[in-house]
Amino acid sequence: MNHVSQVRDDARIARPLGWLVALVFAGAAFAAVYAFFILSPVGQQIDENALLGAHRYLEQQDIAREPAMVFLGKLPQISALLGSIALLVSAVVHRSVAAPLITLAGMGAAVLCTQILKHVILDRPDMGISAATINSFPSGHTTLATASMVAIFCMVTPRWRPLIACLGGVYAALAGAATLVLGWHRPADIVGAFLIVLWFSLVTGWVLTLAVPRWNRWRTLRFWGAARGWRAAMHVPGLLALAASIVLFAVLPPVETGENYRLLLGFLGGGVLMIGGAALTLFGLMNEVFMYQSRERGRK
């Protein structure tokens, strides 16, 4: 690559439009989730019914509750360990602490932002729907689990990112679904956490492409870790799951489900689909933005 071509590639990487559009989308999606599921009666009822469905399900499946609670209780430590290993390995392999420190700062900011939003800024109005009126949006556990996967994603070279994004989306989906099924959080809390991490992952990626542009370039797409199948494995099931959750929430009665176990299980199923679909779709979106911003000119 000659000097002129390199300058053009650096200019493409530094161009902010792609990052800005994605950041606006993530912020708007977060606001929309909060407005519907927290501030509207219909949204609160859907969210609450999914949580009640989880509680009723646990009453029927008590034998599985204890090991699942142990796993969820250790999830923050597992996630922090995975993220820390990725940062350390990156520092050793690339012989630089710049990228790990940038990523650590970005993901740390995501975790801190979640706590500030939940405990200081955002409020959950009491509409007489839930006995628990303390705001739990967004989920701190889910933020930490998701941020650890994003840290790994940011630390690998671009040709590995589609694979890591797919695996990270699956991990975040499982962690989020477990958080709902065990009755710790409502679905909207978990999706809100995904969107917080997405927003900060984009900021982190923007800074990384400016700070270490050579490392954050596509050299080839002909590599199994960057195969199109990984992208399809996020977008297709993710969007289908989101669509299915919307259909379920639209078909099921939004209010006065009472103690109807089957209806509550339907809301629980819709919540799990929403969480899984959001995790895969948002990791897929993150990967697409990173790919677009770091692709060399003349490569397909």
From TrEMBL:
It comes from Zhihengliuella halotolerans. The chain crosses the membrane at residues 17-39, 75-93, 98-117, 137-156, 163-184, 190-212, 232-252, 264-290. SMART domains: acidPPc. Keywords: Membrane, Transmembrane, Transmembrane helix. This is PAP2 superfamily protein. InterPro entries: PAP2/HPO, PAP2/HPO_sf. It comes from the Bacteria. CDD domains: PAP2_like. Residues 102-204 form the Phosphatidic acid phosphatase type 2/haloperoxidase domain. The lineage of its organism: Bacteria, Bacillati, Actinomycetota, Actinomycetes, Micrococcales. Pfam families: PAP2.
